[in-house]
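Each record in this resource describes a single protein on a pair of labelled lines. The shape at a given residue is found from the number at the same position. The record below illustrates this layout:

***
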Amino acid sequence: MGQGAFRGRDVDQFQALSPEDYEWGVLDNLLIEKLFKGIDENTQVIPVVFRPYVFTYRLERGAQKSDGPPGVLTPLLCFVSLSRSGKLYPSSTPALPRDILEPLEAKTYSIGTVDDLDTFLSKESFRELVCTEGLARLPHVEIVLEWLHQG
């Protein structure tokens, strides 16, 4: 579900949140306008994928290795709805992208296995998590970081 590994210009579509946007879960007007550009004015809410952690790998001699890890890794996907007022609301449970969990079809970079994640989630459930006050307070972020550190 979703993509977590990116190379090159794939990340040009990402929009950065300010620390304030992240803390309060409300976007600034410029970003709202950008995300709603081309959307019918009667549409009040659009789906958005929020990636609370975006990790980048350092370049080697000014270039990214084509056979190494992806240039950008986003290990957690939060599916939210964005209102025209700029407020973000959770719309489904968070997910870890399948493209960075083994088993994989091709020998590519992974952060763990589906079996290990299933074992971990049998103790910690995303289903019970609710976002009520800003994105920075989402408890699933800590749960995922705990799992990543175990791996």
The mean pLDDT is 79.
